[in-house]
Design brief:
Domain Xaa-Pro dipeptidyl-peptidase C-terminal: 375-637
Strand order of the largest sheet: 1-13-12-11-10-9-8-6-7-5-4
Keywords: Hydrolase, Signal
Shape: globular
Number of domains: 2
Signal peptide: 1-20
CATH topology of the largest domain: Rossmann fold
Radius of gyration: 24 Å
CATH class of the largest domain: Alpha Beta
CATH architecture of the largest domain: 3-Layer(aba) Sandwich
GO molecular function: hydrolase activity
Protein name: CocE/NonD family hydrolase
């Protein structure tokens, strides 16, 4: 059992991919109050931003226990089998049915459907990578786990959420809904890749699908991770593609179950990786191929947030403040609320911590374990039982600095207002516009900064964070190579909750540069700067589409960058440029006596790297100058919420 547990943790870590009865702290009551100021919903590629003035539908603000007695004592796993798609490709599927030791019950059962790229053969080690959760099985749910096309034991070539893979989803649902042991009702579930397939499958509106429970799902492939700020991700993406490819070379169970199908799967995985998708995609990204490095149809098809309006089933979204998809998880709630029952839970997690590796810390502050929340969600919306899932808090967020979960009625927070803080010549950060005095701060332009930082932990999905390195919890090391602006010691707590934006004026001596912006909480008692969030932007991709940006009370707080070939702007040496940087959302309280620090540098290697060809042509090294003053009023816009909300 110990070896099994260790192996489960190890595999889940590589995959990059849970009940207290007391009430969590609340900053909302029912009915929900109207917003103090109108908010513009962030746009997408296909939709401009739009204004709305009221919060999401009211919900009870307190968590409660849900722990019904199990109805089954054990489970039965059906041997690996295959589903044939309409083009002849066979997908591997594993089924686990509820059972009682003395008397096997063949159902029918409601289904939990999981679609994975991480090999069904490994799923039995942990639900995080596709295994049946004993809690769900004991309450009468059958679990169906399918290897998506080109992965695990399935035939075909993998293309990471490509059109053909997405076409398979509805055929898999149809198969699961019509089996003799199925009662035709399906709940979609999964972590990471499995959570993304959950959202994409829900958009196909198959009548058998009744609810969804995605954990750490991607929303916008380009902006969330692959090309954040217009720079290729050099940490997670190569490791992830290598991992999926490697596991696809191990269809051992498929070969044993059906040698012809298994061997065909192995050969198609290898040839597809080398000639079709994995290797060519990585090379094109590194070389700055415009079809890959710029936003376009390739990324739109792989960005499920684009079609959020097609989701018509109740959806519970789980995310993390330091997750790979930190940007999009609250956007899922914003896009779905008002049209379907929707809830949002954001913990203080990296990617693997949200999956429970080594732990997500739940239950805490009355928030139950994730699988108990999932059970309640599916019991109500899949089985149709009146168990109060609709009365769970709309939004539950961990507040850094407060170190507890807080519930609210909406995201963005109904009381949030943008507050602009301006960079000053003396490196202070004040609400006042810059004085007549101007200043320039020169920084080395090199792709080396951020290597040891919280970003390294975040963009390796939390794996690097398992190492006891102080730079993961303290930005002081990175600040030594940055230009740092700081508020005076705060006279009162400062509660921020939502997206942020930095407006940075700068010049460069080369034809390309970038700016990395870090937000941290400085504690004078310890001398440490706790990382809160960060943003990254390439200068050539600095164009902003205001029609898709988030504007609140007349102030832009979340810019929308097109990142298309057509939107590229020239970078002229020594000519001032305004860099409007999207800083990913967070929730944090900077305590009285602390200071909020904003650190500027020219790279964040853990998060993004300029494409190799572009860097060589336009100059990999140089000097950047950050400008401050009346003519160049650099600033940061914070999402400030009244302390009374806490």
């Amino acid at each position: 059992m110990v070896i099994r547990s260790i192996l489960a943790i190890s595999i889940t870590s590589l995959m990059l991919s849970a009940c207290g009865g007391s009430s969590s702290s609340s900053d909302s009551t029912s009915p929900v109050a109207e917003r103090q100021v109108p908010v513009m919903k962030l746009g997408t590629r296909s939709a401009e931003s739009e204004t709305y003035g009221s919060a999401a539908p009211a919900a009870d603000s307190a968590w409660s226990d849900y722990d019904p007695a199990p109805t089954f004592s054990s489970s039965k796993e059906i041997p690996l089998q295959f589903i044939t798609m309409d083009d002849g490709v066979k997908l591997a599927v594993k089924v686990t049915l509820p059972s009682n030791a003395a008397n096997f019950n063949e159902g029918p059962f409601p289904i939990i459907l999981v679609q994975t790229s991480y090999n069904t053969s490994l799923g039995s080690f942990t639900p995080a990578i596709g295994g049946a959760d004993p809690l769900m099985t004991s309450h009468g749910y059958a679990t169906v786990v399918v290897d998506v096309r080109g992965t695990g034991n399935s035939q075909g070539e993998w293309e990471a959420f490509g059109e053909r893979e997405q076409k398979d989803y509805s055929q898999v649902v149809e198969w699961a809904a019509t089996q003799s042991w199925s009662d035709g009702r399906i709940g979609l579930f999964g972590v990471s890749y499995l959570g993304i397939t959950t959202m994409l499958t829900a958009q196909q509106q198959h009548p058998a699908v009744k609810a969804a429970f995605p954990i750490v799902p991607l929303g916008d492939a380009y902006r969330d991770i692959v090309f954040t700020g217009g720079q290729v991700n050099p940490t997670f993406i190569p490791l992830w593609i290598t991992l999926v490819t490697g596991l696809g070379a191990l269809p051992l169970e498929g070969i044993a179950a059906d040698p012809a199908t298994g061997i065909t799967a192995l050969l198609s995985h290898i040839t597809g990786a080398v000639t079709n998708f994995q290797v060519p995609t990585i090379l094109k990204a590194l070389l700055g191929d415009q079809g890959t490095a710029a936003d376009g149809d390739f990324w739109a098809k792989r960005s499920p947030l684009e079609n959020a309006d097609k989701i018509k089933v109740p959806t519970f979204v789980v995310g993390g403040l330091f997750d790979l998809f930190q940007r999009s998880e609250p956007l899922w709630f914003e896009r779905l609320k008002g049209s379907v029952p929707t809830k949002l839970l954001l913990g203080p997690w990296t990617h693997i911590e949200a999956a429970g590796v080594p732990s997500n810390g739940l239950p805490q502050d009355g928030v139950p374990e994730l699988n108990k929340i999932q059970l309640r969600w599916f019991d109500q919306y899949v089985k149709g039982l009146p168990v109060g899932a609709d009365r769970m808090p709309n939004v539950t967020q961990y507040v850094l600095g407060e170190e507890r979960y807080v519930t609210s009625s909406d995201w963005p927070h109904a009381q949030m207002k943008p507050q602009q803080y301006f960079f000053q010549a003396d490196k202070s950060l004040l609400k006042d516009q810059p004085s007549e005095k101007a200043s320039q701060s020169i920084a080395l332009q090199a792709p080396i900064f951020g290597l040891c930082s919280q970003s390294l932990s975040q963009w390796t999905a939390g794996i690097a964070g398992l190492l006891p390195l102080p730079c993961f919890d303290d930005d002081s090391i990175n600040q030594k190579s940055s230009v740092v602006f700081s508020t005076p010691a705060l006279e009162d707590d400062l509660y921020i909750n939502g997206p942020m934006q930095a407006n940075v004026w700068m010049t460069t001596t080369t034809q390309e540069t970038s700016v990395s912006v870090r937000i941290s909480d400085f504690d004078p008692a310890t001398g440490k700067s706790r990382p809160l969030s960060n943003g990254l932007l390439s200068a050539s991709f600095r164009a902003v589409d205001e029609s898709r940006s988030r504007i609140i009370d007349g102030v832009m707080i979340q810019p929308w960058h097109p990142f298309t070939t057509e939107s590229v702007l020239p970078v002229k040496p020594n000519e001032p440029m305004l860099m409007q940087v999207e800083i990913f959302p967070t929730s944090a309280k900077i305590a009285k006596g602390h200071s909020l620090k904003v650190s500027l540098s020219t790279s964040n290697l853990a998060q993004g790297l300029q494409p190799v060809l572009s860097s060589l042509i336009k100059g990999p090294l140089g000097l950047a100058t950050f400008l401050v003053g009346p003519e160049h009023p650099s600033s940061v816009v914070l999402p400030v919420v009244p302390n009374s909300a806490l």
